[in-house]
């Protein structure tokens, strides 16, 4: 998977190319940006929310479960001195979904690829290239 960020005309605005899609990332005005898109940290929360919902929906589809709408609300607090990064996920499912399915879907939610990446060991390799 690959994403390429290129600065645009804003102070911190970047167009991020992902396959054939473009997502705008920027900083809010209070951080010196133009607020023309979500911040990179907001995009991280969005990645976790969408990955969790999609993973649950894909599982339900494979099981032929009708679970209706899935809403995942992620609140993200970056690490502060002495405290870890915190993600709070609220999953909203219809009350009509049976308890056994709800419990299984919550187990599946914790297995989404973004969740596993964030809780696992991460390595970075950084290089500097001429523009």
> Structural class of the secondary structure composition?
alpha+beta
**Would you list the SSEs in sequence order as H and E?**
EEEHEEHH
The mean pLDDT is 95
C-alpha-based Rg, rounded? 18 Å
The biggest beta sheet is recorded as: 3 strands, antiparallel
* CATH fold assignment of the largest domain: GMP Synthetase, Chain A, domain 3
The assigned CATH architecture of the largest domain is 2-Layer Sandwich
Number of helices: 3
Ordered list of secondary-structure elements with their pairings:
Layout: E1 4-7, E2 14-18, E3 21-25, H1 40-63, E4 71-77, E5 86-92, H2 99-109, H3 113-119
Antiparallel strand pairs: 1-2, 2-3, 4-5
Can I get a quick summary?
By secondary structure, the protein is of the alpha+beta class. Helices cover 32% and strands 21% of the residues.
List keywords for this structure.
single chain, 131 residues, alpha+beta, GMP Synthetase, Chain A, domain 3, 2 domains, 3-stranded antiparallel beta sheet, two-stranded antiparallel ribbon, 3 helices, 5 strands, elongated
